[in-house]
Amino acid sequence: MKYFLGIILILLLTACGTSLDNGNKTQGDSSNEGHNEMEGYVASVEDNRVLVVENRLDPTVTEFDPQQHDEAGNAIYFSLEEIEDSMTNSLIRGEKIQVTHGAVAESYPGQSSAVAIKRIVDEDHDVVIKLDQTLNLMVLEQFIQQVEKSEDAIMRVVQYTTEGDPVFNNYMFENGEHSIKVDATQDNFGVAETIRDVSCPQLEYYLIDNQNIMFELTGCDNEGGALAIASLPIADIIVPEDIYHRIEVIVNDEVVLDSNDKNEIGEIITKIREGTPQSVMTMTMMAPEGEIKLYGKNGTIQFDYQKAGNVIRYNTFVEAGLTFD
Question: pTM above 0.70?
Answer without folding.
Answer: yes
